[in-house]
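Sample pair:
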Amino acid sequence: MSAPESLPLDLDALYRDSNVHAALEALDRDLVGLAPVKTRVREIAALLLVEKLRRSVGLQAEAPPLHMSFTGNPGTGKTTVAMKMASILHGLGYVRKGHLVAVTRDDLVGQYIGHTAPKTKEVLKRAMGGVLFIDEAYYLYRPENERDYGQEAIEILLQVMENQREDLVVILAGYKDRMARFFASNPGMASRIAHHIDFPDYSEEELFAIAGLMLERMQYRLSEDAAPALREYIAHRRAQPHFANARSVRNALDRARLRQANRLFERRGAPFAARELATIEAADIRASRVFRGGAGEGS
């Protein structure tokens, strides 16, 4: 069936009347960097907008495949982007509710016979009408353990991803190399994933900008000396093992707030200015063991 050629179509109005406009703006506002990720999200949003417009003029518009794979290191924004994607899908009518249910293997796989199916089905029931986000999805598949029940969960997921794809979008997430091996070992799952989005690590400058956004939301500020101290911290911590991008930066700020609170508490007998309640000093950051050659997410 062809659309009436004289019918004026306003794609921009559809874009602004849905919540896609707000969701994409929030993506730019809330997440620093991630240019390739944002580009892919916009491309998917454009596809969905055009498909919705096609349906509105009577053109055949089969729902596009929407299951996705998000790959990248921890703390690169995968869960946050999944939430924005759920909002976009809901705004365009591709999911009924637009909520996100985030799970791991433990939420899906049981420890004894007959336990996995009800666990997996309960998660799917909660996620139906929205987006199911499975973090570290490769842990579902453990071929080295003959008694592992992860394969049962995978088979249930595959059936639902195929038969109820118009009422549920599944996003699988994890490290890029492990996800590649998972898909190679599970061709049925690989064939159902339409969009693969890789999340790059943040640069030092991007991590500093992320720290600034976090502090602003918590109504804190860095003193003049604390800003270069935080830049040094990021450079040192980023080069260490088990660095988790924005997650590690948030942990560092939480510990700096702890030190600031204790520093002020020790001065409780003397008055101090209100601005000090909102100021992180260099000492609050440089007390980290990262500056003493220590590693990890400790003090």
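The first helix runs from residue 11 to 17.
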